Amino acid sequence: MGSTGTVLRELRGAQKSAKGVSLYSRYVNRPAGRVLAAGAYRAGLTPNQVTLVSALFTYSALAAVALVEPSWTLALAVYAALALGFAFDSADGQLARLTGRGGPDGEWLDHVVDCGKLLLVHTAVLISFHRFGELPSDGWLLLPLGFQFAAVVTFCAGLLREHLGKAAAAAGQPTGAPAAPVSRVRAVALLPADYGVFCLVFLLLGAPGAFRAGYAVLAVVHALFLAAFLTKWFRELRALRPG
């Protein structure tokens, strides 16, 4: 087992492409995940165990959002746990590529944890609104449901686009124009849709009105991204039709 520095260098050489990745994931989450992956490698953890560690941090934070009255202390604790959970979510894939121990079971487990996260984060906000929110009107309870819809449909549609594209490539069908180079403008534009940026809103839990406003703005942004992504992916898949 090599030194931590050696492991980090190997992990840097095994990074996924930066195409379609926001600046936060590229310069914050992936480097943090790289450090955690090196630590997990030194500790002898498997990629699936790292995925479960990610789930533990994330789901514990979401349970706290639903069950504990909002405060600045809760805000800091929840954000720290969510950010760590997201970094471990990056670390499991990096560890899998480093060790060659990735497989369909690991990919499946990772997606299951991610899907559960997207469902639970907005459910936790809904419960918190109902229990502690002192909302201006009951209509605010619909906001987390709409945000959840946008997040889950984007996640599922993106996965389907990826797998249908791979299936088309495996069948020898043309997959469209060559991949565009990594774009910094695109990386900046994707920031509002990045889960790591979304987690920042929980730092406002100590000020319920500010949290509601920030959460509402992000919900609108994610709805707009959903419309843009669905249009883009539909056109790409339509272009894959044989003949």
TrEMBL record:
Keywords: Membrane, Transferase, Transmembrane, Transmembrane helix. Pfam families: CDP-OH_P_transf. The keyword Acetylation does not apply. The keyword Transmembrane helix applies. Coiled coil: none annotated. It comes from the Bacteria. The chain crosses the membrane at residues 74-91, 139-160, 187-207, 213-234. Belongs to the CDP-alcohol phosphatidyltransferase class-I family. This is CDP-alcohol phosphatidyltransferase family protein. It comes from Streptomyces stephensoniae.
